[in-house]
Here is the input.
Amino acid sequence: MQEVYEFLKKCGTYYLATDEGGQPRVRPFGTIDLFDGRLTIQTGKVKDVSKQMLANPKVELCAFDGERWLRVAATAVEDPRVEAQEHMLEAYPSLKAMYQPGDGNTQIFALEQVTATFSSFTEAPRTVQF
Here is the structure.
């Protein structure tokens, strides 16, 4: 988990894929945190991505660091605790202009049942699960 977190953090931007009634939706994301022993991401409840993850929690992330890429398949489970929101916003203080803990919009999703695959053009893929 730590290695996946560090890779995503280093990349800064990763791409999150969700499902919207059978149509894949992919968008850039930038939040990744370790909270309470789980990887977490953040969005706003008013956004389509939130509605998509609530309707179908199966998601995939993909990130590239210039040499290797990481694909993460997971189940996104909402963590409604204000403490999770506070932790995320402390890790990403620039988001405080748009989000506040307990504001009714800030939403944290924990990634569970994770399969993460590190790949490159020069090495065999390596998969970790947690």
